[in-house]
């Protein structure tokens, strides 16, 4: 079996409700649907992430891979990953390149699973779990509205809630309303997206936040400051998760070595390949750390990929990030269900999902109409005042 063709189609899918975070407001996702075809007619699908404009940059990275893929055996995932990054020169721009090339990696594994007639999780070690716990993201809104969403999420079976930091007064108002609505039992996480200095993070956690029974805080300070992150971890009474600090295997190694986090976030679309994901989880396991699936907001193929990885890896023992429920639609023939705060790993061959050509066309047309959804789609002056990388009003 040899690879003979590569197709890449940009799609834009709107959100049900905008995502507001410290760097902007996002109204939907743009992704590139990648299809790899073999000489025996099999087609594997994957999804490349597009975070920033222009989408043409992501398409150019994918197109640059064509020469390294032709006539390759899709089973040679390690060889292909090294070719793409070393011969392609992308190891020097690993973060951006990995998001762009991740659709190719996923499509290779989809092909392997289809060729073997097995679901992907069976090829990655088999099922440790088939029901994958996911969090409920509480999108930024007025305190009462967020509290109502939190209460309904708990009624529906979610046991882990998550919200983004904006400002300290706004955060405290919303935490107070949410805890009043749901009580102390549901787990609660706050994602700071690198917006605090170490000193402010310590003071905030040890004073205003200490009464809210947080499961952990995510990336409170700048990603590169591992010494500062380790200081925060040692100084606060709540666990610390690393996200932007460990977006691929090499960064995760440094976070673990620095003892800078209690939880390691992992996203297959930011690693060189799936074996790097497994290696990262293995390093964390050796250090006694849990790992959590990180979300860039996934369409169907990428969400399925995440489920297969989590199902087959031991230390995904906490609820995982997920915003799939905020998509207004998907390009699959059937959306992946969320039932009582869990998603079930697909059982079909490969990723176990089927692409709907009509829906692909719909979201390709939508891309041509609205362009690339980005975190910067809304002008900053129209957003709430949110400190970015600076010191908050404290």
Folded structure, characterized:
With 394 residues, the chain is α/β, with parallel strands linked by helices. It has 13 helices and 12 strands. The protein has helices at residues 55-64, 66-69, 77-87, 94-116, 120-123, 143-156, 168-182, 198-206, 226-235, 249-257, 274-286, 300-311, 357-370, and strands spanning 3-21, 24-38, 43-50, 131-133, 136-137, 160-164, 187-191, 216-218, 240-242, 263-266, 291-293, 342-344. The strands form 3 sheets. It has a 7-stranded parallel sheet with strand order 5-6-7-8-9-10-11, with helices on one face. A 3-stranded antiparallel sheet has the order 1-2-3. Strand 9 (240-242), helix 10 and strand 10 (263-266) form a beta-alpha-beta unit. Helix 1 crosses helix 4 and helix 8 runs parallel beside helix 9 (226-235). The longest helix has 23 residues, at 94-116. The chain is globular and about 60 Å long. Residues 378-394 have low confidence and may be disordered.
């Amino acid at each position: 079996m040899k690879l003979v063709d590569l197709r890449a189609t940009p799609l834009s899918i709107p959100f049900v409700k905008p995502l507001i975070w410290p760097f902007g407001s996002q109204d939907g996702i743009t992704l590139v649907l990648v299809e790899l075809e073999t000489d025996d007619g099999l087609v594997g699908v994957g999804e490349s992430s597009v975070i920033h404009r222009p989408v043409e940059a992501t398409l150019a990275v994918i197109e640059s891979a064509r020469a390294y893929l032709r006539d390759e055996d899709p089973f040679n995932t390690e060889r292909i990953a090294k070719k793409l990054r070393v011969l392609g020169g992308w190891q020097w721009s690993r973060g951006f390149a990995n998001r762009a090339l991740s659709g190719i990696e996923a499509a290779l594994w989809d092909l392997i699973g289809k060729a073997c007639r097995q679901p992907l999780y069976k090829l990655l070690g088999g099922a440790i779990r088939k029901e994958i716990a996911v969090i409920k993201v509480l999108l930024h809104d007025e305190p009462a509205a967020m509290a109502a969403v939190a209460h309904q999420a708990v009624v529906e079976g979610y046991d882990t809630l998550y919200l983004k930091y904006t400002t300290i007064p706004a955060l405290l108002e919303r935490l107070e309303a949410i805890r009043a609505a749901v009580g102390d039992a549901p787990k609660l996480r706050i994602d700071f997206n690198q917006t605090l200095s170490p000193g402010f993070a310590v003071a905030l956690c040890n004073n205003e936040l200490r009464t809210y029974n947080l499961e952990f805080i995510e990336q409170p300070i700048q990603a590169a400051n591992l010494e500062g992150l380790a200081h925060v971890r040692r100084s606060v009474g709540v666990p610390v998760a690393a996200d932007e600090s460990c977006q691929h295997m090499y960064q995760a190694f440094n976070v673990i070595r620095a003892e800078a986090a209690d939880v390691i976030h992992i996203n297959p679309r930011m690693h060189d390949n799936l074996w790097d994901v497994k290696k990262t989880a293995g390093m964390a396991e050796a250090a006694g750390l849990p790992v959590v699936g990180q979300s860039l907001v996934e369409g169907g193929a990428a969400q399925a990929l995440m489920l297969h990885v989590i199902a087959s890896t031991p230390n995904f023992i906490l609820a995982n990030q997920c915003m799939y429920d905020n998509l207004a639609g998907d390009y699959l023939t059937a959306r992946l269900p969320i039932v009582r705060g869990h998603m079930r790993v697909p059982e079909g061959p490969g990723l176990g999902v089927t692409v709907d050509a009509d829906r692909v066309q719909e979201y390709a047309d939508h891309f041509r109409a609205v362009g690339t959804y980005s975190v910067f789609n809304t002008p900053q002056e129209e957003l709430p005042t949110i400190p970015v990388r600076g010191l908050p009003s404290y």
